[in-house]
Amino acid sequence: MSSELVNYRCDGHIALLTVDNPPVNALSQPLRAALLAAVRRAGADPQTQAMVILCAGRTFIAGADVGEFDRPPEEPHLPELTQAIESAGKPVVAALHGTALGGGFEIALASHYRIATADSKVGLPEVKLGVIPGAGGTQRLPRLVGVEAALRMIVGGEPVSAGEALTLGAIDEIATGDLTGAALAAASRLVAQGGAPRRTAEQPLATVEPAIFDAARRQAAVKQRHLLAPLAAIEAIEAAVTQPFAKSVQRERQLFLERRSSAQAAALRNAFLGEREVARVPGLPDDLPTREIRRVAVLGAGTMGGGIAMCFANAGFDVLLKEVDAAALDRGMSIIRKNYQASAARGGLSAQEMERRLQRIQPTLVWSDLAEVDLIVEAVFEDIGVKRQVFEQLDAIARPGAILATNTSYLDVAQIAEFTRRPQDVVGMHFFSPANVMRLLENVRTAKTAPEVLATVMKLGRKLGKVAVLVGGCDGFVGNRMLAQRTREAWFLLEEGALPQQVDAALVDFGFPMGPFAVSDLAGLDIGWRNRQARAHLRRPGVRDCDLLDQVCQLGRLGQKTAAGWYRYDAGSRTPLPDPAIEALIVAHSQARGITRRQISEQEIVERCVYSMINEAAKILDEGVAARPVDVDMVWLNGYGFPKWRGGPLFYADQVGLPQVLATVESYAERLGTDFWAPAPLLRQRVAEGGTFYRRPG
């Protein structure tokens, strides 16, 4: 007898319980029920002397069914299952392969023996979803690996290799050869040894100094600032040390349920599930045929082009890197090699792998070399005239069916497509700098882009390890169009009384890793200045504008690369230091504009920088530039450093409450005018309906 989710069969006197819930054997309620029934059946069968829990497919149980977290808990709960496994009167062996994570690893910890393949990984990453292990993980792991190692694994949330798990004591054996055969052999040995099963909960805990938990809290406050789950995990592990197991496991469950229902957990689930959701595009069938991409060309060997070339080479693609002159090409290849060497020096890849990746990137100065590639990504200067020259040349030499992609950040992809006789093959692929590091890829469609081209670049994004989001064409697309609102308000705040360090501090306190002025210094102020100059024709006469960036750049202050920008930098340092010269420049600017400077609160800084983006995002949704709120949120979570624990700008707006957001936008419209603060019609509509961005009434 078997259920659809758990296959039950016997090999002699050993029951094999094989979980089969593709794709990752997630611990859904039906699976929990089926596995619990199988464990009880094996326990009650007098012919069965031991049992082995293993999984079909590519992995052991990789965690909970995260989608269930937004619904009321359903029995059997995971603690009931782990307790049934641990309490079994017959040895239970967990046979691990792939990843045994979260609840999957908790099942393994409750088993009496753990055997794993050499390439498997185990861990308790629940803190990354705003929760903690809730089925004994914080109680059993310290008994196997010690408190300090358990703190590292649970509070950090990073999985460990089978080899490290064996060294720590989290598993008992690494299988050689067939995993099922090795697990059966282990079960037979345990039966032959006799005696009661070795229950993890009954293992003694080594005495530790209470100060270890205080140190862990201090470290979490710095490394995981704003996050509450790491602190709850520390408390649960501390309970394992200070209380009997029966009591401490109840405290763990209480802390788990508190975190499960928290706003942070909801936001982090949105960030996690959103990455899957944006991969499936409304209107594009999952089975839509895609074009085969084997060879890629990148035009431009500058910072962006070189990063894009590395991105493709890292994913195993052969890449042609095209430049217009030998000096620029040599400089680009030199930077690529230095980047790879730095990664190898940090231990990120071996010397052999570094050379393999370098060999995949072939430099060229010859247009005709691009004639047979499958995809060409243009990363040249952000000027529509230059784009025209490039795409007319590509149209002349690229093979029929090749995809022609532009990495433009702002320009109209539809206009660029019209520079060719094949607009159906043209698409935007907006990488973020550094392209070999940043996870976001904004794929930009036009009305004429062929559906199979869209499906191809979305699939390609996943192969590159990116979070690919399909958006429509407009000035700045989704990310940069919203960023322009924040940038404008940040400049206006300087005019009105704030300083760069105040604006940056407020947004870092909100959760961004860096403030906008520190980010500008890091990227180079000349980049923003060049964009501002190129877009000068878009400024509306009589509408407020701030030229502070122009003034700073005209002084030769271009950011970290000149040791001075919005901040100053000591020799060899990347630490931004407030600069009296910038304060004097800003104060003089305000006086010249007739603006009376005032004290500006942190609340106003956050509202003007964040709510202006939310209001613009509502317009973006209304115009269909983004199909869903989740598309907007994944852009900002993966490309612009929006704090994951807030779920994204629109998820955050829903949590704040759209009536409050609208009232705040209206108050700034009344105070600052409607040129930039006119409430988006969709925002008004959602409030009138009583809905949210993510949920409409009915």
How would you describe this structure to a colleague?
This protein is an alpha/beta fold. The protein has 3 domains: 6-261, 2-enoyl-CoA Hydratase, Chain A, domain 1; 295-475, Rossmann fold, CATH 3.40.50; 480-624 and 657-689, N-(1-d-carboxylethyl)-l-norvaline Dehydrogenase, domain 2 (Orthogonal Bundle), CATH 1.10.1040. Helices cover 49% and strands 11% of the residues. It is built from 29 helices and 17 strands. An 8-stranded mixed β-sheet has the order 12-11-10-13-14-15-16-17, sandwiched between helices. A 6-stranded mixed β-sheet has the order 1-2-3-4-6-9, sandwiched between helices. Helix 8 packs antiparallel against helix 9 and helix 18 (479-496) packs antiparallel against helix 24 (602-623). The model has no long low-confidence stretch (mean pLDDT 95).
